[in-house]
């Protein structure tokens, strides 16, 4: 039911921002940033619950805990970069938004490189 709250908060926020935008556009954007951060905060509890469940799975499988931590980092990077990119694009700065998306992709690539190197080492062991 969290998604219902978040969805309603988003719709109400957009309605208020549209009303504010008619008189003070700069405050409308600031309001939307605050609303977006609040939605992000509401999602954080859900993300932490998923992280805890994932950690339990990682503990049960033993040696693969570091891979699950990498997965959670990659998910966090993806969400943060998408959120920031969307806010920039909503403000009319599409180029900056696209650059943030690109930076997020590079961060995901950099975070995932240890898995790639482990895969290469595993392949070398067999050949």
Describe it for me?
- The protein is an all-alpha fold and 127 residues long.
- It folds into 2 domains: 62 residues; 65 residues.
- The chain is built from 4 helices and no strands.
- Helix 1 runs antiparallel to helix 2 and helix 2 runs antiparallel to helix 3.
- The radius of gyration is 19 Å and the shape is elongated.
- The protein starts with a helix and ends with a helix.
- The model has no long low-confidence stretch (mean pLDDT 85).
What number is the mean pLDDT?
A: 85
Q: What portion of the residues fall into strands of 2 or more residues? A: under 5%
Backbone shape: elongated
Q: How many separate helices?
A: 4
| Distance between the first and last residues' Cα | 52 Å
How many structural domains in the coordinates? 2
The helicity comes to: over 70%
- Rounded to the nearest angstrom, the radius of gyration is 19 Å
- SS class: mainly alpha
Largest sheet: number of strands, sense, barrel closure: none
Given as residue ranges, the uncertain stretches (5+ residues, pLDDT < 50) are none
Give, in order, the helices and strands.
HHHH
Per DSSP E runs of 2 or more residues, the count of β-strands stands at 0
